[in-house]
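Re: the request from the purification team.
They wanted to know what the chain is likely to look like in 3D before they choose a buffer screen. I agreed to run a prediction and write the result into the notebook, where they can find it.
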Amino acid sequence: MRVIAGKYRSRPLLPLKGMDIRPTSDRLRETLFNVLTAGKPNVLEGTIWIDLYAGTGAVGIEALSRGAETVYFVESSTQAAELIAKNLATLKIEQNFRIVKLDVLHGLRVLANERVTANFVFFDPPYRMREAYPEVLNSLAQPGLLKPDGVAIAEHEKRFDPGENCGEFRLARRLVQGDAGLSFYQRRQW
């Protein structure tokens, strides 16, 4: 596992062995960021990210490497939160991030109360937690948590459909690669 592009390109990231963590593969992360930056190479500059179920921190670290201003890593596991901190330290990333060691829904409430407004929210719950997909999307509807033109991206099993519409959000695009899929959600335009 490594950083794909940007400031920390090709630098290795440490995995967490023996836990129920399935890091987003290098190939899927590359696809994710290629979709977000297609035709707009500087689109990530200065953006705010929330990386939910952050695991190893690979997606948020990739965002920082590509110019994100700040990343909030939300992770309930102590071991995973420590691994995120270790991966950041290994890359000598000392600022522009915060590790929120809470369950995802509580973490989102805390960030909303702190008036954090993100451009991008990535979430990759354990695949067995299918109920998490609508819960996260409904939580992102809290005022100000995701910018009006913000994007929520869900990683999921390729055979699982997290839904076309959920509350304020509609599916804008879905990609499948290997055993995983990425679903991109944006607010409905009424």
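For the purification team: The chain has five helices and eight strands.
Please add any questions underneath this entry.
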